[in-house]
Amino acid sequence: MTKEALFRLTGFQIVAADEKHVHGWGTLFGYPVAARVYKDGHLELLFTAKDGTVRTVRQIQKKLNSDAELKGKLTITATEYGTQNLFLFLVTLKSSDELEARHLYDLMLSRLSLFLSETEKISPAKNCAICDQDGGDMLTLFEGNARIVHNSCLHRWKNENMEKMETKSQTAGHLQGVLGGVLGGIVGSIPAFAALRLTNYVVWFLFALIPLGIYYGWKLFGGKLTRITLVFTIIYALILAFVVEVIDTFIILRSYFGDWVTLQDTLEAYFVSSPVRATLLQNALMALGATLVGIFVAWRAITKTDKGQLIEVQIAVDMAVPISAVDRQLSQCSRNEGENSYE
């Protein structure tokens, strides 16, 4: 069974395909859904909900496992919270041939529809992703998730972004971005410094706030978002992490040895052979390591550029699918349920 044939089970419109997978989006039970089929025959359906809990998803998985036909063939897992406080859950269907795929997909629809209707703790994201008003007439990929939008909102959003970027390219530079990044980094480092002072431990996730603070400070001050932003964010974040560690050590040394200890003395303690050098270097490496983890966690945000944002906007417009067209395809798929029309 080909990837395209398996994808047609969804009734969704294919928006992109390559050697590895086929994907597109549509609606199921009122949920915007991004569907993807891999060449190994796995079908993934990523549902976008406005709320939900991991516990509820696990309960639904337990109910699915109680069906002997679906056990081992169908899984549902909470993935992560998306943008705009969305809750995402992923349904994966595994099949070995065409007949099994068609049977399991129909069975999945009936079981999942029942289990989702039985809970009030998960509900579909039905509001327009742009204006946040109820309803919409298009489906598209918005900020990485399948979302419902109004066609008018989609094109207004595109025009606003193009005008904003054009104005920014004429007036903005990197200088105000650097200024905002410097201030944002200082603000982002305060929680990590406070944790060091209160607990004397490197709280890893707080160091993720340093690169985020730098990036959003740069963005808030209206600097151009380019590759220079990324390089500055990484280098300055590592410098700030070390500075936070040095200042914490400076305060500790002064509390033990008195006010005669200077910042220069503290810095020398990291590089000049002494009984505490190994401990100080270990703490500094932990702070730098935590910051690198923070950079990795924040990578999706801090790698966004003005050019990349415009590309995302254009993709959202180009790949938008009318909901009515998706519904007609899904209805046609249901009517042809008994026909062997797949490749």
List the helices and strands and how they pair.
Blueprint: H1 3-8, E1 13-17, E2 21-28, E3 31-38, E4 42-51, H2 54-65, E5 74-81, E6 87-94, H3 98-118, E7 123-124, E8 138-142, E9 145-149, H4 151-171, H5 175-199, H6 204-207, H7 209-220, H8 227-257, H9 263-271, H10 277-297, H11 299-302, H12 306-318, E10 321-322, H13 323-335
Antiparallel strand pairs: 1-2, 2-3, 3-4, 4-6, 4-7, 5-6, 8-9, 8-10
Helix pairs in contact: 4-12, 5-7, 5-8, 7-8, 8-10
Highlighted features:
7-stranded antiparallel sheet; 343 residues; 10 strands; alpha+beta
Mind explaining what this structure looks like?
- By secondary structure, this protein is an alpha+beta fold.
- It has 2 domains: 3-129 and 320-335, Yope Regulator, Chain: A (2-Layer Sandwich); 172-304, no CATH class.
- Helices cover 56% and strands 18% of the residues.
- It is built from 13 helices and 10 strands.
- The strands form 2 sheets. Strands 1, 2, 3, 4, 5, 6 and 7 form a 7-stranded antiparallel sheet that branches.
- A hairpin with a 2-residue loop joins β2 (21-28) and β3.
- The radius of gyration is 26 Å and the shape is globular.
- The relative contact order is 0.12.
- The model is unreliable at 328-343 (pLDDT under 50).
